Amino acid sequence: MSALASKLRIFSLICIFSLFHNSCNKENNDVIPDVLVDFYIDLNDPEFFELNAIGNHVLINSSTNNMGIKAAGYDDNGIIVYRSQVDEFIALDRTCPYDYVLDGSSIAVNVDGIYAECPVCNSTYALPSFGTPISGPSKYPLKMYRTSFTGRFVHVTNY
130-133, long-range: CB within 8 Å, 24+ apart, which pairs? Predict the structure, then answer.
């Protein structure tokens, strides 16, 4: 194989990898504007007792008993914290991305079990699949925040 053919093959592989990486990048679907999110919740606090079982969730807002300064999410709609596995938590903004993209509306989704539904556009999002839309007009997932777990405390942040 010639040096030129080898370089073309490497270049092609880099381009293909880049294309797949960018198409899978969650940031491309992140339509809700960034706001500072940084708080901890203590699983020993009775307010968060539900999170001790897999498949449960709690709703966090500015008046929730958490440790941190910013827990309200975009436009104070709140944040859903869902326990998906033994040591894994998913934190999602409650703002419906479809309504926001459509006309800038800030509509909080309602949560029932493992689903969140927008009361305006009727899009339904699955919490176990990171807020992916499963019905309705939305093609965007709910905005996700980073989480870490230390065995007692769940840290939710976006930095």
Answer: 130/90, 130/92, 131/90, 131/92, 133/98
Q: Is the dihedral of CA 5, 6, 9, 14 positive or negative?
A: negative
Are 89 and 145 contained in the same domain?
Answer: yes
Q: Is it the case that residue 110 has pLDDT exceeding 50? A: yes
- Domain ranges, residue 131: 32-157
Distance CA 75, CA 79 (A): 11
Does pTM surpass 0.90?
A: no
Other C-beta atoms closer than 10 Å to the C-beta of 43 total 17
* 52 shares its domain with 19: no
Cβ contact 117:133 at 8 Å? no
